[in-house]
DNA sequence: GTATGATGTGAGCGATCGCTCGCATTTGCT
DNA sequence: AGCAAATGCGAGCGATCGCTCACATCATAC
């Protein structure tokens, strides 16, 4: 009961004109979402804002949710591109530089249409494809986990799964919290330093705050 | 344009019978929100689930948003009571024990109706009184900041504002992420240990990962 | 008992929403 | 130019929603 509306496009735009229509619809959806929020963003309003008829809207998107899903996918994709690119560059760096770069890029990724990002984050759970976003988190966690494994000797935490999970969660969250509650912090280099320091100190470990000390980092 | 609906109760229930009605409405709202989500939780459905007529609902709540706001306020209040109580107990403890206790209580607080919590967190931004929740974060940050100030000599971070902000954000987020993505972790004591260690290592500081070293914790 | 205010009821109004469908216009091809 | 396919249009349908209001029932005081 209560079937979820379809979220895939109705047809693939093939000609130039129709691709422009689809782009206009996506852009308008983003604008209206930011301006009015999800509830008050009606498909009629979106079509009007796009300068397109309501009929055309439903030619390419089978439902309102599909429209929003497309916007989410595009936005998340843009952010993930930034993060993935950086993680590749970072793979060869030692822990401290890598952490700093990761934090920097996380903040940079949050600078892509932050208002839209905020609305989407709020609304994602209500559109069918939340899995997409969870998969992004899981992908990031897996990438970080692989990095930690490769640098095992610099890491002072035993459980790499948990370490990756906590590192990704906390960096993501501190960035997110700063975007929402302390926007001014984002431009301060101190912020990047502190967040990076938080992650590094945890990952490097400490004989006094954890049970064991796997590697010999005692002497510096 | 677009006036926000009122969010305060229409009248204060004075007699016993009416208070039972209000309670039934709040409980039913929580149930329906969890079952159907915000969009599909209509006031008619809520009234029916509460075994109360739609007219009675509007006798006590001027709008759907007011109803949800009341549920939010009650839920946040319950969580904040738990946290506040613990922070008082913790004030006298040294950093490491305090951190562990704070993390433990944060997880405990998230155990209060976690499904409802999830829906509310998603919907809060859309109901007028988001300020309430932001104030909760700010209150927690202020309490932690005061604690850090009192224990200045145990802290190796210069900027106490930022330290409190990052500590609260990251603990809140790791708990939250665990609730949503790794529920099994919540029952493992290791999880509390690791999260606490993360915060402690950051707050205790480290000459190698931050610029200055204010106190003399070099020798252990 | 009966009068009064508090409380509870639910049919249904007006508005809005997501979406369909029959038709008009444009494009690509010959 | 002529035709078929692709694309665009928008009035309006059916459903649902938040909410009102005229009325019924209950509790309390005398």
Shape of chain A: elongated
What structural category arises from helix and sheet content of chain A?
A: mainly alpha
User: Mean pLDDT of chain A, nearest integer?
Assistant: 84
Beta percentage of chain A is: under 5%
Count up the helices of chain A. 9
By CATH, the architecture of the largest domain in chain A is named Orthogonal Bundle
**SSE succession of chain A:** HHHHHHHHH
Oligomer: homodimer
Radius of gyration of chain A, whole Å:
21 Å
In percent, how helical is the residue content of chain A?
55-70%
Uncertain residue ranges of chain A: 1-6, 8-13, 211-220
In the CATH scheme, what's the topology name of the largest domain in chain A? Tetracycline Repressor, domain 2
Distance between the termini of chain A: 63 Å
Question: Biggest protein-protein interface?
Answer: A-B, 46 and 47 residues
A few lines on this structure:
Two copies of one chain form a homodimer. Chain A is mostly helical.
What does this structure look like?
Two copies of one chain form a homodimer. Chain A is mostly helical. The first copy, chain A, has two domains: 16-62, Arc Repressor Mutant, subunit A, CATH 1.10.10.60; 69-204, Tetracycline Repressor, domain 2 (Orthogonal Bundle), CATH 1.10.357. Chain A is built from nine helices and no strands. Chain A has helices at 16-36, 43-50, 54-60, 64-90, 95-110, 114-123, 130-150, 160-181, 189-204. In chain A, helix 5 packs across helix 9, helix 7 (130-150) packs across helix 8 and helix 8 packs antiparallel against helix 9 (189-204). The first copy, chain A, is elongated and about 60 Å long. The model of chain A is unreliable at 1-6, 8-13 and 211-220 (pLDDT under 50). Chains A and B meet through helix 8 and helix 9 of A and helix 8 and helix 9 of B. Chain A binds a DNA duplex (30 and 30 nucleotides) through helix 1, helix 2 and helix 3.
């Amino acid at each position: 009961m209560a079937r979820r509306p379809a979220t895939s496009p109705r047809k693939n735009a093939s000609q130039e004109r129709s691709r422009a229509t689809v782009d206009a619809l996506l852009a308008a959806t983003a604008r209206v979402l930011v301006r009015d929020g999800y509830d008050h963003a009606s498909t009629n309003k979106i079509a009007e804002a796009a300068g397109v008829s309501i009929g055309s809207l439903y030619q390419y998107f089978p439902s309102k949710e599909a429209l929003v899903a497309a916007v989410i996918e595009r936005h998340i994709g843009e952010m993930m591109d930034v993060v993935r690119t950086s993680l590749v560059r970072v793979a060869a760096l030692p822990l401290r530089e890598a952490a700093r770069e990761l934090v920097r890029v996380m903040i940079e990724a949050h600078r892509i249409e932050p208002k839209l990002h905020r609305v989407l984050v709020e609304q994602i759970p209500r559109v069918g494809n939340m899995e997409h976003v969870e998969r992004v988190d899981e992908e990031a966690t897996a990438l970080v986990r692989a990095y930690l494994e490769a640098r095992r000797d610099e890491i002072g935490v035993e459980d790499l799964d948990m370490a990756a999970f906590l590192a990704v969660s906390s960096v993501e969250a501190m960035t997110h919290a700063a975007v929402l509650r302390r926007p001014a912090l984002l431009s301060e280099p101190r912020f990047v330093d502190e967040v990076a320091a938080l992650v590094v100190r945890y990952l490097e470990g400490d004989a006094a705050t954890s049970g064991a000390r796997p590697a010999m980092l005692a002497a510096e």
